[in-house]
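agent> Task received from the user: take the single chain below, predict its 3D structure, and emit structure tokens. No templates, no multimer pairing.
agent> Plan: (1) validate residues, (2) run structure prediction, (3) serialize to tokens, (4) report one or two observations.
agent> Step 1 OK, no nonstandard residues flagged.
tool_call: predict_structure(input=
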Amino acid sequence: MADNSPINGNNDNVVVSIPIWQKFLAEVLGTYFMIFAGCGAVVVNLDNEKVITHPGISVVWGLVVMVLAYTLGHISGAHFNPAVTIAHASIRRFPLKEVPPYIVAQMIGSLLASGTLRLIFNGRKNQFIGTLPGGSDLQAFVVEFIITFYLMFVISGVATDNRAIGELAGLAVGSTVCLNVMFAGPITGASMNPARSLGPAIIHNEYRGIWIYIVAPFLGAVAGTWVYHFIRYTNKPVREITESASFVKGQRGTV
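)
tool_result: status=success, residues=255
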């Protein structure tokens, strides 16, 4: 979700060195559990007369992103998404040398989760858990670009800006995912994540419209982070910003 600094984004002056293998493992596990829960909700819904419902699936995606962001954000930044990794690297908030291992880790997590779900729900229950356009390719491309832009814009605001209420970053990002899936799910599947679409596509050998879910999220994420990077500029000193950045810290002084 964020860069390699702690998830609350309010400790940029604290340098914590974390071995790349720990970050790699965190991204594999995080992406695995995100895909397993989110896509698992999709296949269970399809196999059981839509008992979870579309709003329920949206909530599952939002909750799993929020939980994993708080669990692994301080280790790897909780990207779980190649588009997020590339976007952070494009504004130099993430080292370029770590981009390839992060993307590999995210793809491994997605493939393992998709494979696990296919093994569990096989035979008659072998539902495709990937993403397919519900309308035209152009419509799907535009929707994926916009919702990924929105997601990355929120991530940039709450997880990388010292002026934000950093303790609520995971909640804000998870809520954004929930909102996007709620309204864009029936149109595109609301991927926002090349790994989320590629993993199931490879496991199920279903590649219709896959270019949309690779190109649009990358473009949307880079655009979203650059737009926020442009409007976040401030001449305030870091100390002045960080003293008023934390809602929780501010409340502690009044108790």
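agent> Step 4: summary for the user.
Confidence is low (pLDDT under 50) at residues 5-13, 244-255.
agent> Done.
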